Prior knowledge:
The chain is mainly β. Strand 11 and strand 12 (250-261) form a beta hairpin. The chain has helices spanning 100-109, 122-128, 265-269, 289-294, 359-367, 460-463, 511-516, 580-588, and strands at 4-5, 10-13, 19-22, 30-31, 55-73, 77-95, 132-154, 157-174, 197-215, 218-229, 234-247, 250-261, 273-279, 305-312, 320-334, 337-349, 352-353, 378-381, 395-401, 403-404, 407-422, 427-444, 450-452, 471-481, 485-494, 536-548, 551-558, 591-598. The chain is built from eight helices and 28 strands. Helices cover 9% and strands 49% of the residues.
Amino acid sequence: MPVYVCAAGTSALNAANQLLASGCTAANGTLNPNNPFAAAGQLARLTAIPRESLTTNTDTKTYRFTGGINGTFGDGWNVALNGTVSSVILKTQNRGYIYLQGLMDAIAKGTYNFVDQSLNTQAQHDSVFRPQNNRSISKLTQIQASVDKDLFKLPGGAVNVAVTGQFRYESINQPSANAPNAANPNARYYQINAVSVVGKRHVWSAGYEVTVPVFDKLKLKALGSYDSYSSGQKAFSPKFEAEFKPIEQIKLRGTYSRGFRAPSFSESFALPTTGFAVALTPCGSALYTAFCAAHATNPAYLAGYGYGLTSSGNPNLKPEKSQSFTAGVVLTPIPAITITADFWQTKIKNVIIGASASPEVFAQYYSNNGVVNLPGIVVTPGVPDALNPAALPTIGSIAASYKNANQFQARGLDFSVSGRLQITNGIKWTSSANASLLLRLDQTLENGTVNRFDDSLGQCGITACSGAPKWRGTWQNTLDFNGNGNISLTAYYTAGYSSTATDSGGVYKDCQASADNGQLAAFPDGSPVQCNTKSVFYLDGHAEVKIQSRFTLYVDVKNLLNKKPSYDPNGGYGLYQFQPAWSDSLFIGRFFRVGAKVDF
């Protein structure tokens, strides 16, 4: 805070990222009422908590018109023609965010009461916390037609052939709520992300579907589509399905398909958009020895920091192309019990990814005095150390355009068991269990580097550090009382996993190396705080009773055992100190929800 304030006061950021005011003296100004040391001719540091909370209010209006005709003509030809026109308007107002130019003016001119914020007028308040309003609109026009006919019969049924066609126009205009301003860089807000997407395109597609019931025990299906985008992407995507039932109790099934995904509007046209991650500076690692020595007089600067991952649109992206395969079996030993097991595998090429933090980025930045020479990546230093302004700052942001990586692959197994038992004439018990086993999840980058994610905290760039647990499962049991009411108990299980994340500087399942790279929370001696997350288990209950044929009362008991989330300093970027993806219900604790349902 300056000593003097006046109408001609100005302020600016210096090389150490400090906001300093100038332009006012005893000759043209008055002592600053916000500076308790003004009479002594001393500056003051402003530290304050705004009285207004950060809020975002949205108002969405959707206009949609749809219509169509269908019928039959000739010798069993079925036709359909449908159309849709829609428009979605989203109005957003952000309040409580600091407007930088307003803050700078208020400090230099003395137009805002920082000592007692309640004494400010609404106009004074809005000059520093200027409400920000934004309006976005998206539009869709779609026409689709189809023709199908049973051509001839086989022992298993009629062979049906269908042909489809579609035209789609889609557009979006989402201006930035905090756009860069070259003329006045300070005319921006703190903390509002500069998300912006403006684009349009039209899509032509044609498809087919052929169903061939060869005989009762063998059914085949072939389908596919050809899609062409005005933005330049086009591809043919076929799929084949088969079911074979050698006996009544066993059914074998499988699919093979090739997929296609055009880049989204955000990936193609978005302005730079930033998400934030956290990292540490483990001084026990040789990589950070010089850095820690340079900041030794300010331990707080070494305690950890946030950095931005800034991704911007790339109109030259190729489409993602996938290849998928599934194979499974359905067993029905008795009519009341069904058991399924399926293997699945998916490979995606030309995977579209945004900016990510690799170990190479951290290694080059901290070993090469902030210089990073990696193609397509721009690393910007963060806020300097106020006590050591000449020393290398921590990383501020890592910026890159969306790009096509080499390959993403995943494979796993899915299982299910369901059964039912009529206990008495009025009571029926049903039980259903599902489990999934993730065998492999990895991404191969252009340089051949493989980032593996299964059974670990990654992929942070896609899941916000939610993790990819190896095992997940649910088991639901229900007692139904002749349709007049029921009681259900559902169990949820998620296995624990390694806290390492290879796309955020970590080394797959190498806890110490990941801590050395700053990806894992570490103690002052450099040892990791936690290497693995714990498994999560909880129960939910539900009961309902039908008062009348159209009136039902129900009660839900969430987190029946009132379990608490396990400590996790790494999950979700360490923001919550627990993993919200799997433990959000545990954080809330046991709670009850009572309601009524009326059918008209």
